[in-house]
Amino acid sequence: MKRFLSTSSGLSTKSFDVVIAGGGLVGASVALGLATDKLAAPLSVAIVDTSLPPAKEEVYDKPTLRTSTISLKSRKWMQGLGAWKDRHATAFGDMFVYDKNQGITFDAKQDELEHLGYVVENEILRNEMYKRLRELGGKEITGATVTEIDAGISEVDYISDPKHASLVLQDGKRLSAQLIVGAEGANSVTRRESEIGYWRHDYRQRAVVANVKTRDHSFTAWQRFLGKSGPVAMLPIKGGSISNVVWSTTPAEAKALTAMSDGEFLKELNLAFEEDWDGRVPPLAVEVVL
């Protein structure tokens, strides 16, 4: 494990029980879990990120490109945290996965379920988590007290205090804690500074994402496997009137797809789903939504 002496000892240090490095969906979930847990009530928590959501009411009229598919159990958990609103997500009742020779359908009705899951835009879900965190901080603290810190992280110091670790921020300030949660994603400074090993594999694929308006509303999640190049998926958002496209393919084809005009891309997308084995195809994509 890396050890070093900090050169910023003269700057102020703030102490917390837990510091969460990274305020994306994972980091925000950890903070919200602590903030709503009665056993965590004595804890002080800091969540650190360079782009925290603004403290204002957002209007979600335009679709964004990054989405998550949420299971029923995950939805129930987020409802318990107070960060979930059904109106921000689109439920799907079935999922159809296929290639040109075979396929499989997952249907909620077969298991006597109302839905299989939900598709929600990451930005909306993250904003709702922070909205709930701020509500808890100002009114009804049932768990840990969470402080938001808008800053970048440069180092992790394990040696200056044997009982605490410290995050050294890019401005030289320190955050000391008994527990540091590394949730910054693929380029985690916490993981790098802690020398936590990992391995990576290049699948030689790239994901092209887009939002398209369809001729008819859809409440089905579609996934078509296109041989060696990879799968393409269409996931319903915005009440089923728009589909979020995630097209995994080779780097060369991804470059070609992103260079196409809207009309050319729509043609390729509809062709990708055209050939099937059971007569089922998703609604025709008619417009790229910016």
TrEMBL record:
Taxonomic classification: Eukaryota, Rhodophyta, Stylonematophyceae, Stylonematales, Stylonemataceae
Superkingdom: Eukaryota
Any Pfam family the entry gives: FAD_binding_3
Domain FAD-binding stretches: 17-254
GO cellular component, one term: mitochondrion
Name of this chain's protein: FAD-binding domain-containing protein
GO MF term list: FAD binding
